[in-house]
Amino acid sequence: MSRSTKPHEIVERALELSTADGCVVIADEESSANLRWAGNALTTNGVTRGRTLTVIATVDGKEGTASGVVSRSAVTAEDLEPLVRAAEAAARGAGPAEDAQPLVTGTPVSPDFTDAPAETTSAVFADFAPALGEAFARARAGGRELYGFANHELVSTYVGTSTGLRLRHDQPNGTLELNAKSPDRQRSAWAGRSTRDFKDVDPTVLDAELAVRLGWAERKIDLPAGRYETLLPPTAVADLLIYQMWSASARDAVEGRTVFSKPGGGTRLGERLTDLPLTLRSDPNAPGLESAPFVIAHSSGDDVSAFDNGLPVPATEWIRDGELARLSTTRHTAGLTGLPVSPGFGNLILDGGGEKSLDEMVADTERGLLLTCLWYIREVDPATLLLTGLTRDGVYLVENGQVVGEVNNFRFNESPVDLLSRASEAGRTEKTLPREWSDWFTRAAMPAVRIPDFNMSSVSKGV
Where are the alpha helices (DSSP H) in 309-382? Predict the structure, then answer.
């Protein structure tokens, strides 16, 4: 359909066309604006628009309810009925859906359901772009080169169902990644930020931070593999705990397949994971990290169910004061496991550390490593959630509270669950950008964490 057709009208028309026993229609209106730069100069910028329509048809049968999902972009008026029929045909050709549940009812209609979608434009960079130009000038004068990109996207999602749900959520999402390099490319430092509107990020501040780190890197120190006291910055903590949450399915734990399975049967719910009074939580209304207050599921998977579309997502504490409190469930897996319904998470916050900044934690370090970020994280063993990955863009040696130089990069082997059990200190919680997972997950707030014996398993030759 043309972009002049309002998303809610598309949803209503698709529902009218449906002849299935149940139907869910999701319209995603997407817009994005971006800037890219290299060598202290802008290289590209652009704005994009897009629309995707997903139809989920459910068909009741003697053996149960089947579902079919079809999703397409750039759907025209002529394409709409074939799209609905394709979803119905997929449902009729499928076996009963294991996760089948009655479609959600009773959620109040979003008051802005019939409003036009929100859109981002290049105007989102009105204040940011001049500050970026100032950062280029400072970097040039300081003998360093800046590379990176800024991206802002806004997705308006409309969800309508045959049971009467009419819901809408606008999700802004912005990321800033900035690399500073020496002219010979032998020294590199990275900083990243997440933002909803680019009004709370200043590239000149990031450039000043990176200039300090490039200065630290003028002295090179070789260190062997081994276990080192290590300060993990918030971005690294976020990358590790996001992966932990992706592995926190209640069903998998009950079936004995994850680090949250109890030997002999059951789960580790109620078990203390860390002696620090840390709380890992998600809250759709967390200031600056707002996310969808209801389930948006374009398909079913291990930890999400298309039948749960529109289900309210409450604030949830996954770890409470150091104890494992919740594992993620759909309505289906909650029934299988006997655990409360706990839909997936749109943001992740670790609270309960102290009030120290990362700089203050460095000042309290007798000898240890300070990381910048983690990269190329992969799972080695799901039973222990052992992960491997690389450090990147700066590992620094701290002695007597001062950074004394840059050391080589490492490959690490660690489990985030095991790290929590060994953590000796956590600092002040702050918004952060997970570097490894920033393409999929950006809304996080974490403290820096001190690990007495982080396992640097081998030396890496990366910069």
Answer: 331-337, 358-363
Model confidence at 4, pLDDT cuts 50, 70, 90, reads low
b/e 337-360 (16+ beta carbons within 10 angstroms → b): bebebbbbbbbbbbbbbeebebee
Question: Rounded to two decimals, what is the model's pTM?
Answer: 0.96
Burial 145-162 (b: 16+ CB within 10 A, else e): bbbbbbbbbbbbbbbbbb
pLDDT at 339: 97
61/189 same-domain check:
yes
Is residue 2 domain-resident?
A: no
CA end-to-end distance (rounded Å), the chain: 48
**Facing residues of 445 across strands?**
349, 431
Q: How far apart are CA 459 and CA 232, in angstroms?
A: 18
pLDDT at 177 over 60: yes
Please count the other Cβ atoms lying within 10 Å of the Cβ belonging to residue 137: 12
Whole-angstrom distance, CA of residue 196 vs CA of residue 173: 5
Q: What range does the domain containing 383 cover? A: 219-463
Q: Using one digit for the tens of pLDDT, what is the confidence trace for 186-198?
A: 999 999 999 999 9
* The predicted structure's pLDDT at residue 273: 98
Q: In what order do the strands lie in the sheet with 316-320?
A: 323-324, 316-320, 279-282, 348-351, 444-446, 430-432
- In this structure, are 168 and 291 located in the same domain? no
